[in-house]
Design brief:
The complex is a heterodimer of chains A (282) and B (302). By secondary structure, chain A is mainly alpha-helical. Chain A is built from 13 helices and no strands. Classes of the chains: A mainly alpha (282), B mainly alpha (302).
């Protein structure tokens, strides 16, 4: 009896420890973001007198100013177009490729898979100049399409890698029945495999989405005019131009940040089970 | 019989359809990653500023210049240090937090989300937030130390050459640990529960359960997590360093990528920069290729 209650006590103590650690870590990860959002709602004078606290009155005008005067609105639309375009291309093409690499036995499969894996070791920074050369040859300089194609090219290997792992975790029998009933490979992929691959696809969408939405370096090389600037480009420009108007800058940073937090909130459950599938299975 | 014949035609079709299905993805990948990589290797044998038509073959000279470039090797040493520290921190913190979140606790989904939030932030946001935190005069960190009467610990976090690189590593760890937590958490949740139940019946305590069940079963996912953080420490820290210190003060935070980009775009020595990139690529390949091959082989058999 005595023994029992002491283990119970030990358990609740260690639970308390768990909560304390997790809460402390959460404060360090979330507070800077909350601070940014609350800073975006302060008036300029309050921003300096009340640096670390919550705003006393909400100054939504900062968002209006950033969106219209700061030109963040146009950047936002460009980012949406580029991110959506890339995500659609990457999920579709990587699903096709990953399916073939996971489920079909064909000559060249090993070599192709290996070539895709090399990309994890290539410092993408060095590709800037030659990639710009490719875009020039395609006649796509300073277009949104150039961003979509470059982002898709750079994210597709990792997506193939993720989805291939996911497809491997789906038992063979599931699609074999469909194939013997005369379903084509494409048919099996779209009718049998993809409907049960929500987690794998969510993982690809979140990774690709985050990457395009936040990318700066390649965009700074490929984009030449204001009209097609994406959000990170617009923001770096904004930082230089409005560096004294902090609340407005913080409003702009908030506009950049919230959509991706939302995307993660919506997809997180699927995302987490999608990450596991292949890697643990072996 | 009919079924067998069907299987045979399927096999012939497969040889074609396999290639056809991979082709579109591979084409994009080739055009924007593989081909530029090969071209970058080619440019490494030339003297070129990146823009003009004047590109002159100079053989291995760029490599000679790189070997004589002290800043590059300083940057490589910094990158190695950066990579090792960051890899250890992200994976140790990652597994500890993943184990804690995986316990039967309330608010599991909440903690999972809060820890991942930094991963979703753009580097501009991270840069602006952390330059406020590190600001020597009114920054959050020094204000906090002042409040706690720990004035002795107040530092110029990004201006002290001995500290600056570690301050940047801290931001990198802050930014990416959540990713490793989620990766390892997903791995933990895939371990069958009955293994633990059996161990408990055999009288194994939580620590020996952790060492004998959890760690061995997590090895494959640890592999992925370590390789991603190690190569990432070399090839994807440009944004952090660029926004916070730009490689200064006095090259103390210079890492391979900042120096490569600097060499290419500020000194106009694109050939030499590409030679550096190739050296970096080969070194990383040597380190990570064996683990890729193991993973690749186990997947083919599986």
């Amino acid at each position: 009896m005595l023994f029992n209650s002491s283990t119970k006590m030990a358990r609740s103590l260690s639970n308390l420890g768990t909560y304390i650690i997790l809460i402390l870590v959460s404060v360090t990860t979330v507070y800077p973001v909350i601070w940014m959002v609350s800073g975006s709602l302060k008036s300029e004078s309050e921003f300096y007198t009340n640096i670390w606290g919550v705003p006393k009155a909400f100054a939504f005008q900062n968002f209006v100013n950033a969106w219209i005067r700061g030109g963040i609105g146009q950047n936002f639309i460009n980012s949406i177009i580029v991110t959506l375009g890339t995500v659609i291309i990457v999920s579709l093409l990587s699903a096709l490729a990953a399916y073939a690499l996971a489920k079909i036995d064909f000559i060249g499969r090993g070599v192709l898979f290996f070539l895709f894996m090399i990309s994890l070791m290539i410092p993408h920074g060095i590709l800037a100049v030659p990639t710009f050369g490719v875009i020039v040859k395609l006649g796509l300089v300073n277009t949104r399409l150039s961003l979509i194609l470059v982002y898709a090219g750079q994210s597709i290997a990792f997506s193939v890698f993720l989805l291939q792992s996911y497809f491997l975790s789906i038992p063979k029998e599931i699609e074999e029945a469909a194939l013997i009933d005369g379903c084509t490979r494409i048919g099996a992929l779209f009718r049998v495999i993809l409907p049960i691959s929500g987690p794998g696809l969510a993982t690809v969408i979140i990774f690709t989405g985050l990457r395009c939405w936040n990318e700066f370096f390649m965009a700074s090389i490929l984009v030449r005019t204001k009209a097609i600037r994406t959000l990170p480009l617009g923001l770096v420009n904004f930082v230089q131009q409005y560096s004294t108007d902090y609340p407005q800058l913080f409003a702009a940073l908030t506009i950049l940040t919230l959509p991706m937090i939302l995307l993660f909130l919506v997809g997180q459950k699927q995302f987490i089970s999608g990450l596991t599938a292949g890697s643990v299975k072996e | 019989m009919a079924k067998l014949a069907k299987r045979r035609t399927l096999r012939v079709q497969d040889a074609v359809s396999g290639l056809v299905l991979v082709l579109p993805a591979f084409l994009l990948y080739f055009l924007f990653v593989l081909y530029p990589t090969i071209e970058a290797g080619w440019i490494g044998f030339h003297r070129w500023d990146g823009f003009s038509k004047d590109m002159k073959w100079i053989g291995l000279n760029n490599y000679k210049f790189v070997f004589q470039d002290d800043v590059f090797w300083l940057a490589m040493r910094n990158s190695l240090k950066y990579s090792i520290v960051v890899t250890i921190a992200k994976n140790v913190l990652g597994i500890l937090l993943a184990v804690l979140i995986n316990r039967k606790i309330r608010l599991q989904a909440f903690f999972r989300t809060t820890i991942f939030i930094p991963v979703t932030l753009a580097f501009v946001v991270v840069g602006v937030l952390w330059s406020w935190i590190y600001n020597p005069n009114f920054g959050l960190l020094n204000s906090l130390l002042r409040e706690l009467n720990l004035e002795v610990l107040i530092r110029g976090w990004l201006s002290d050459p001995k500290l600056a690189l570690y301050s940047i590593m801290a931001v990198d760890i802050w930014r990416w640990t959540g990713y490793h937590v989620i990766l390892l958490l997903a791995g933990l949740q895939a371990i069958p529960k009955d293994l633990y139940e059996a161990a408990e019946i055999d009288g194994a305590g939580p620590i020996s359960q952790f060492i004998k069940i959890t760690i061995p079963l997590l090895v494959p996912i640890f592999f992925v997590s370590i390789i991603l953080s190690f190569t990432g420490g070399f090839v994807s820290n440009y944004d952090f360093v660029y926004t916070m210190t730009g490689g200064g003060p006095n090259h103390s935070t210079e890492v391979a990528l900042t120096w490569i980009v600097n060499t290419a775009f500020n000194y106009g020595a694109v050939g030499k920069a590409n030679a550096m990139s190739l050296i970096l690529f080969v070194l990383l390949a040597v380190v990570s290729l064996p683990s890729f091959l193991i993973r690749f082989r186990s997947q083919r058999e599986g």
